[in-house]
Please model this.
Amino acid sequence: MLSIPEHLAAGVQHHQAGRLDEAEALYRCILHEAPQHAQALHLLGVRMHQAGRFHEAIDLIQCALAARGPDAIFHSNLAAAYLGMGLFAEAESHCRTALNLRPGFADALSNMGLALRGQGHLDQAGAAYREALRLDPQHVDARRHLDALDAGRHQQVGFVLLADGQVEQAVRHFEEAMRLQPGFAEAHRNLGLARQRLNQLDDALHCFREALRLDHANSKARINLASTLEAQGKIAEAVAAFREALRLEPDNSQALLSLSELAAAGYDRFADEEIRRIEALAARSDLPIDDQCRLGYALGRIFDQAGSCAQAFAHIHRANELRREIDRRCGVVFDPAAQRALIDRMITTFTPGYFERVRSFGVDSELPVFVVGMPRSGTSLAEQILASHPQVHGAGELRELDTLIMMLPGRVGTDEGYPECLASMDAATTRSVALRHVQRLRHLGGAAGRVADKNPLNFLHLGLIATLFPRARIIHCRRHPADTCLSCYFQNFAGPYAFVRDLRDLGEYYREYERLMEHWTRVLPLPVFDLSYEELAANQESLSKGLTAFCGLEWDERCLRFHETQRVVWTASTLQVRRPLYRSSVGRWKRYEAYLQPLLVALRAPSTCSEKVLKETARSSR
Model:
């Protein structure tokens, strides 16, 4: 029969060889004979730690310390067990005890780094890892933890840069995070988001797939993958990816919302039992508000598609209330009085006298085409028709003008904001700003003769556009006011669209939009092509030919087959532009008229409202 020292030696041999069950059996055999054997208690505690049984590990190693007395290795391994439980302060305490007993103990320093990192002390954690590596350059855990720490920092910096629009710089940080920690799934995912912003969608797909290879349960990466496939027009693949996301995470509200949009466009369908499950899920008050909101929009779309208007509107109304609360928490609130004041300032600034002063300031380029109007008025459709022409690049909703406007006061050297700062703008500054924008469009459009920016809210900035680009084309998309506003109300918009959450706000915003457009009609020194959604649906070929001719282009039959054009579309209308023109959404508001009274009253209100809107909404309501 083996002695206790022989049992211990054999146990350690099994342990080092990875035969953990055999080692455990021998340690337990020793403890059966000698319950206070410190080394057996300690080594069995290490084995329990390796098995994820942290409570048992802590109890065993504490018993070992009671039997042996202070021991640096015991304290370091006890710290590791506390780390496994997320008890970082306790782990730090035992690491410090270990280091007091044995200064320069690399294992304890490595564990100390983890304990400090867990408490958010990242600089101190990095210092602990580096000290461990100084003492033992081959310390694998310290090297791995330091790389992970530095990778996490690069990941965080990249995320901030990406949110700030500094995409190229963000890419460099994500790539460095991946170099330091090749298995860092979230860095791969965020690199994919950056590649999206750079319109490198095949590269973005590769990043999302790599993130999923590293972390199959990464639902955000799966949603990103599906959304990118949808934007590319790979609808069947997108549906499959969203469905896989739901299989892995049945309550994923983003997947449910996206699938509801695909179902509304005829690319998928929900079974009755699925709809009942979504309703039950949406009724849960314990869900995060973002999830409740998305589920409300999803159910609104599902019941709208089924023709159940009362149920659809109830869910959409609730979703918009939740979205208003989300906006409020983020400090985003629509102020109708502030919007009226802004339109007043635009009208006061952009007078015939202003345009006479600046008429020679801009850049003589026909490259820019601006597609403007209310959201959901047909701007994506107009852009898709134009982008089907070989001489047009559809750039989507660019934000460059917004950035330019933020910088203008500094560029012209005044404390006044926009648009008042334009009074100080001279010809040289105007030309410099305009040339930079044209260069950006040229970079986006390559050899194309026209680049279309379809940011609808650029209707606010037509005065500035005329100043910078006196030969630009302006396409103003119009749609029935109530249809436009209803479509906005059903849409889970992100970005500067707080006005769509409330029907009265929507009506007031629409009135101010019409007031400004009527002003532009009177004073703008460049032509505007008014494109009616209803007329386009009724007479597609004639209106499409007029649109291309307005842009100075020869007619091309591909503009009639716009739904066949393979290009990336990120807007809310990405599915609509993949289908031939249809008329089913014309007059849709009438199905919801009973629920739209706050909107219709606001549209008919006399203050600042144009006669056109008054007559149209009054006639349509009869």
User: Anything to note?
Assistant: Residues 203 and 440 are 22 Å apart (CA to CA). DSSP finds 30 helices and five strands in the chain.
